[in-house]
Write a structure and sequence with these properties.
about 300 residues, endopeptidase fold (from Nostoc punctiforme), 7-stranded mixed β-sheet, 11 helices, 7 strands, globular
Length: about 300
């Protein structure tokens, strides 16, 4: 089985992704604070590239998605919860007894990934300006294995990393890396497609990175279409706008500039379950472009 990939329509790389080189001796926590300028990144995608044997094998497995066949920079994907943690499905499962109840989803502490020796590559990418529908879906995926059965993705990846059985690359067999499958599902439930170039179920960090790097035209067209839809929406009555504001928290709205009719209509008619797509922006640092195993 091959992995079916569509080429991006763009001819140049997304300028919204900024490389921020890490300083000598700088931890990943310090780099994140400096690169994001302390901004709230909740709901953004975080990508990490590790250097132990398991992460090395994961990075090499994704070479099938690269034109140059080199290992991916990345081996783990997650969704930023706050400045201290992110949510993901790492292969180091922790308490295995909790897997059935949590669908293998874990709250990961950024401090555990702070050492650049073991996680030399880091990226934070924003796909939406309305992250709440995304973060709300985390609990839904965690509690409902009917949405996506993540433990069924974990097993073939553990077999691959450990070299058991036939040792087949799970991506080729149609099993996405659990952390990336989780992230893609959460965003998909909020109406945002993270891997438009991947026509199979082989979710992986490399596919998300490729999307952020080369599919900016897709998201620009999507954002324009959503804006046109908002503009065409009927303008609600004052009572409808007021009711919508109260539902979202009138106190917070009162501290901002009063919206015009167009934005008021969009706020009142927007589906709270759907996030608004945007051209991806973000920051990254790659200390280890070629995968190798740290001792």
């Amino acid at each position: 089985m091959t992995i079916s990939i569509r080429h991006a329509p763009a001819t140049s790389k997304n300028p919204g992704l900024e490389e921020v080189p890490a300083k000598d001796g700088e931890s990943n926590l310090d780099w994140l604070k400096r690169a994001t300028a302390g901004a709230d990144a909740a709901g953004s995608v975080i990508l990490l590239g590790g250097s132990d044997l398991a992460h090395f094998r994961i990075r090499c497995a994704q070479s099938r998605l690269r034109a140059d066949m080199l290992p991916s920079f990345w081996s783990l994907a997650g969704i930023v919860a706050n400045d201290r943690s992110f949510v993901s499905v790492p292969l180091d499962l922790g308490d295995v007894s909790a897997v059935p109840q949590t669908n293998a989803v874990r709250r990961c502490q950024l401090r555990d990934y702070a050492d650049p020796k073991w996680f030399p590559n880091v990226a934070v990418v924003n796909f939406t300006d309305t992250p709440r529908p995304v973060t709300n879906n985390v609990a839904r995926v965690e509690m409902q294995r009917s949405v996506i059965d993540l433990p069924s993705h974990v097993l073939p990846w553990l077999a691959y990393v450990w070299g058991t059985g036939a040792g087949e690359n799970p991506l080729v067999a149609g099993f996405g890396l659990p952390s990336a499958a989780f992230v893609e599902t959460v965003f998909g439930l909020a109406g945002i497609e993270l891997t438009p170039g991947l026509s199979s179920a082989s979710s992986c960090p490399e596919a998300i990175w490729s999307t952020a790097s080369w599919w900016q035209d897709f998201y620009e067209a999507r954002a324009e279409a959503e804006s046109r839809a908002d503009a065409a929406a009927p303008i609600p009555s004052a009572e409808e706008v007021r009711a919508a504001g109260e539902a979202k928290g009138a106190g917070k709205a009162s501290r901002k500039k009063s919206p015009g009719k167009a934005s008021a209509a969009a706020d009142a008619t927007a589906d709270p379950r759907r996030a608004r797509a945007r051209v991806p922006t973000g920051v990254y640092t790659v200390r280890q472009p070629a995968a190798y195993v740290e001792e």
